[in-house]
Amino acid sequence: MVDKIFEKSIKKQFEFDEDVASVFDDMLSRSIPFYKQMQELTIEFALNYLQKDDTVYDLGCSTASTLIELGKQSNFDLNLIGIDNSSAMLSRASKKCKAFGIDIKLRNEDLLDTSYDNAKLVISNYTLQFIRPLQREKLIKKIYDSLKEDGIFIFSEKVISSNKVLNKQCIDTYYDFKKKQGYSEYEIAQKREALENVLIPYTDDENKKMILDAGFSHCEVLFKWVNFATFIAIK
């Protein structure tokens, strides 16, 4: 379905409910620049590290698109686990998994309360930004502790610049992108208001510091477009 959620007045904060789930795949492709390329890059780097029967977690898996693509492209069996606290998202994920014939365990759980046993790879695409800073740091530490010694963490986030002028230019460039995808200025303004105090982005340096403080030996940017970035962290 086509994302038209913000064509009408929104009187609540953004949440991953049934309305959002029903248009989520379209929302991703039109709201996040180079989302498909980022996803392909994530899978390419993941397959460089993964071996048969390794366990992969996708945190905030939404409709399971990334895990489905990983399962399709892998030449060996993987233990794929998708975690999300939105039942609406997981319902659609389950249908997609069946349609593509990919075996993925879907868990409706809180990311801070669940376990990541025997993890070789943890993926998080535009999920950390929705977690409050103090809780975010706890989650990163939990991910680090759960990963095998040679494990990796690949995550994508909306980022901000510490330079106010540059940050404004980045936001303007991003809004121009959304307009080219067919979103009106009213829709853009509505979504921005709905996300206020819900989505809390970090700078590149803040993301890297959070990762290294948790114990990871290395973290760097794999891909970046203006204010969207994909990072890889190595334990």
From TrEMBL:
This is Carboxy-S-adenosyl-L-methionine synthase. Belongs to the class I-like SAM-binding methyltransferase superfamily. Cx-SAM synthase family. Residues 56-151 form the Methyltransferase domain. NCBIfam families: carboxy-S-adenosyl-L-methionine synthase CmoA. Its EC number is 2.1.3.-. It catalyses: prephenate + S-adenosyl-L-methionine = carboxy-S-adenosyl-L-methionine + 3-phenylpyruvate + H2O. PANTHER family: CARBOXY-S-ADENOSYL-L-METHIONINE SYNTHASE, TRANS-ACONITATE 2-METHYLTRANSFERASE-RELATED. Pfam families: Methyltransf_25. Keywords: S-adenosyl-L-methionine, Transferase. Catalyzes the conversion of S-adenosyl-L-methionine (SAM) to carboxy-S-adenosyl-L-methionine (Cx-SAM). The keyword S-adenosyl-L-methionine applies. One of its GO terms (molecular function) is carboxyl- or carbamoyltransferase activity. One of its GO terms (biological process) is tRNA wobble uridine modification. InterPro entries: CmoA, Methyltransf_25, SAM-dependent_MTases_sf. It comes from the Bacteria. It comes from Malaciobacter halophilus. S-adenosyl-L-methionine binds at Y35, G60, C61, S62, D84, N85, D110, L111, N125, R192.
